[in-house]
Specification:
The protein contains 12 helices and 26 strands. By secondary structure, the chain is α/β, with parallel strands linked by helices. A hairpin with a 2-residue loop joins β10 and β11.
Length: 505
Amino acid sequence: MASSCELHAIGPDFWLIRDTCNVYLLKDGEHAIAVDFGSGAWLPELAALGIRALDHVFLTHHHPDQCAGLLDHAERTFLVHAPAGEEACLSPEGVAALQETSSAGAGCPSSYAVLPHGIPGVQYDMAGFSDLWWRGRRIRFLLTPGHGPFACSVLFDQGERQVLCCGDAAHAGGTVWQPFHLEWDHWTGSGALAAWEGVQRVLGMRVDLLCPSHGPVIDAQPRQMLQTLADRLLAFYHAKGAIAADEPDRYLAAEPVTCGALRYLPHLYQFGGNGYLLVSASGEGLVVDPTLGDLPALERLLAEVGVTPTALTVSHYHLDHCDAIPTLQARYGAKAWLHPQVAAPLADPSAHSLPWLPSEPITADGLWPEHGVWRWQEYSFEVTHWPGQTWWHCGYQTTVDGQRVFFAGDSFQPASRWNGTGGFCAYNNSRFAAGFIPSARLIQAWQPDVVAAGHGCCYAYAAPQFAKIQLWAELAQRAVTALCPSGDLERDYYRAAEEIRAHRG
């Protein structure tokens, strides 16, 4: 055949087509249906298979590898069906609305892979647990979320066999194609749990032939493979939970001041939702993690304590920790001192695809050493790269009123706040062996008295908490790796940003 697409017969009048995804073609007489579409380069081969009419195309979900070729086939002789709910990521109107809300500074997207322009003429009638009749066959649809909350599998009979085309709900070896698609937000396991429920639905019925969107067809013990996948999805879900189970929060007592801020030490205040103010003996202020929403609270605090901010520092690049820097630079002439790892994405946001990144550049007035000492007024800070919640994160410690205070950003928080992680996900470039583990070891080595973390989480350091975090990180890395088809996190998991860049219009 002239086409570059590979056709493999996997049953009587049933073919697997290797395209941008696996396309499955079922023939009845001179008619056929397809599950997923890919590039559509296989359409010219239908005549050679004795097919005169392609009646229906059933899309398992909206990702471009399933359907991008439909954009080149605006005039169709076949009907295109997609799961109910997928119009938000597939229809022209839905995609346009998504682009309006996916501006700079947004967090995890509702989908990592959306066509830059939607596909017109799609019928969103594949509701989970519904069916459609085709030439005397009942084509059934089963809700199997994961690569999106509305993804469906397509079930039909072929002779004595029940065949399930499962999209990306499963992959050979008990894995998931590009498992970062299970991260529907930056910290919970909701996508993994939904995927587990979908696999449980499949396990509740007979499947003789399992046909995924990527990788080989599973015709030998598909149930055993699916049970392995279900167990791994639950392990991934649990990894999204508490990172130091059974540890108390250890929040420190604070003295409220008139303006509403909190004083933890005579010279250390926490204001608004996220910021800290360190006061020097000279009456100057160092503002930690200033964000625009906290500026009114900061202004009230500065007025009450009679302090002028002259220096700014940031724990990580997320806009809710740094977007007030330009305002404070202009208003007070305060100088922004940034760690090199934090300064890089802020200096050129257009060069990075990252969550919660400010849309406009933020310029540092000075850079800290990668690891070393920085001095401001009477305070001497030990500073270091300190990845966890995101790779572009730093930590710094100084002595305040006789207490060793570690400014910790969002990597490690009390268990009652986001399970203690601040959230991990591929899009945030959260690392385990190179991130959470060495960072937990470092704070154990520095042994602060106070951990001044983000979002108002100021608590007492305790070594057992960070010992548990290291054990959690090892388990979390194993859980994520187990879902990767190649067993390689770089190849299969840390690709979220690449997918977003690849599909931008």
